[in-house]
Specification:
The complex is a heterodimer of chains A (about 375) and B (about 350). Chain A is about 70% helix and about 0% strand. Chain A is mainly α. The N terminus and C terminus of chain A are likely disordered. Chain B starts with a helix and ends in a 9-residue tail after the last strand. The chains are: A mainly alpha (about 375), B alpha/beta (about 350). At the A-B interface, helix 2, helix 3, helix 11, helix 13 and helix 14 of A face helix 1, helix 2 and helix 4 of B. Chain A: This is Autoinducer 2 import system permease protein LsrD.
Chain lengths: ~375, ~350
Amino acid sequence: MTSLIHPSDTSTQQRARTYRDHQRPLWQRVLFSRDVAVWAALVVVYLYASATVPFFDRPITITYLLLDVAPILLIALPMTLVIITGEIDLSVASTVALASVSFGVLYDKGAPIVLAAVAALLVGVVCGAFNGFLVTVVGLPSLAVTIGTLALYRGIAVGLLGTTAITDFPDGWTDWARGRIGESDIPSIMIPFAVLAIAFIILLHFTAFGRGVYAIGLSEGAARFSGIRVERTKLILFVLAGAVSALAGIYYTLRYGSARGDNANGMELQVIAAVLLGGVSIFGGRGALPGVIAGVLLIGAIGSALRLADQTADVINIVTGLLLVVSVVGSSVLGWISSKRRRRGAPEPQHDSTGSGTTGSGQTEPGNTLTDTDGPVGERERDDR
Amino acid sequence: MTTATPRRRGLARFVPAVAAVLGLSLVLTACGGGDDEGGSGDGGGDLSVTFLPKNLGNPYFDASSTGGKAAVEEFGGTFKEVGPSESTPDSQVSYINTLTQQGVGAIAISANDPEAIGDALQEARDAGTKVVTFDSDTNPEYRDLFVSQADAQGIATKQVELIAKAIGDEGKIAILSASANATNQNEWIKLMEEDLAANHPNIELVETVYGDDDDQTSFDKTAALLQKHSDLKGIISPTTVGIAAAARYLSDSQYKGKVALTGLGTPDQMREYVKDGTVGSFALWSPEDLGYLTAFAAKALIDGDIKGDEGDTFEAGKLGEYTVGADNTVILGDPLEFNKDNIDDFNF
């Protein structure tokens, strides 16, 4: 795990450096990815529920589902990047509430609604920057910092409004937040979400900045030595998390037409659960955005199906909780088993051919046994995540 | 040696998929039988009434749902109770949406937020579902009818009557309220002051203190009241948190049995203090009757007997006939008095 790029375990003679994952052909890498698995689960759950749960197959289900998960979808985007660097941000839901309250109070005091929205976004940026400052400049662990700011931001939000709520938002704005795109069943909020999702996918998967994010998660020290500006990257990610949370807060306020200090209570855990279910490693360095989006939708679809099947909130919590535990524990247990087998099998190459004869490119290369003195260690540790 | 890994890792990656499908199918199979019977709600006019309390696992709402269920069974409808585990403003929305999809006859809801659930309720009504709020109202435009637990005058008069009886209609009393800006309590206190001045000239209200609906604060305020006014004869606490804290203080103090306490409380909280003689009697509306009346109001709306307009009348089973008042509101009636003779009949 100390390096993103391994010294070859196949053949140093033939190829100087290679990703282990790149030994397999592209279609296999895509098909056997965790992302595809989560999407497959989503499709299967959707089809199964459509067939068995009354009323689930109606188009309105998708509308309600997307409306419900929209804030989680939004916040999951920056949260994925934060978790891939090995950090965490627990204060996002409190930032949602603080942005919601700031938006409501400013509007209530007579500010134009656009100005109130911009100010709320700035509040989110400040919240994120404060987290980022404490983590990167002061050097505190993000878990401790954001537990603190979770309480702090929520406290300020509740303190600003008390138990009252501001509900008087212009109809044009609230109608948009609850509305759909044209005649379709897709809520309007999916347009800004799609734009942000594409931006974040490009940022994470197609830029040097994104590769830096993975590198930090795999090994912060190695990333630093290879010239990645670790602190700056993390600070940017926390600010992004704050800004997108504030955006979600504005949306939340408009959708429910109510600015309250206890808005979005507990949402941080829903976001983190969805991100982990989507295949992001809590230790950092692994995961991809398409899987996370599927993870959010999967949790939403399961909740929706269970509610339509008249299950209580407790059952829904139990099912999503179990799902998360099984997916996290299950993949590391299987990874551990396969690494055990591999370690046992390491000295004798012919043993492995019994496992799976056909796949892979470097089946019987002599360099294999010669160079794998440190290879398997790296492999095993990566798998254990 | 790496040849075997792609398949194994592929397997590991599919764990969530397999887990999701297995878990969901287990739960859905477990409840599958019930669905087929219950999923009848497409057409209008069916008597399926769903109670959606602020949150589940709350004894007060367990009691109201018990009453609602009894009523629904009485008129031969389908009863269901769903709800969130936490009473946050938005948590009821997804349940309302679900009920809209299922096309239930009526939703009986105690609102967590007067505005946040409004849009979802409006969509439900557009789809033909009747909406009755009970216990806690939404803004009036979002519902057909509100069933109120009691009117302010009834609550105020009842508490004054109880304290007058307890102290022999003369002496100094104090009020231990919730927070200083609590709308309900302030209205009741104003009405109690008027009632005292008009009908009980020998009772003097010496002070009103605020325990903020916090147990410890209410406890401390009770102690302070008793030290400050050594000749205090009685305390009224028109809030369930306040009366329980005051009773706890009195029961361990020298004032037990000497200073009377009454107000609004729940039987479960107060049982111990009624039995040991700290509290003679207190009042509260019956949440069971509230649920019962709500269910009958929902039935009348589904049947088209009433539209929820002022002056409409409907039958509510054992409770008799009710008339819709101003603001499309039905009032349950005067609060119930609890004392050592009847407290064991109630469980909430």
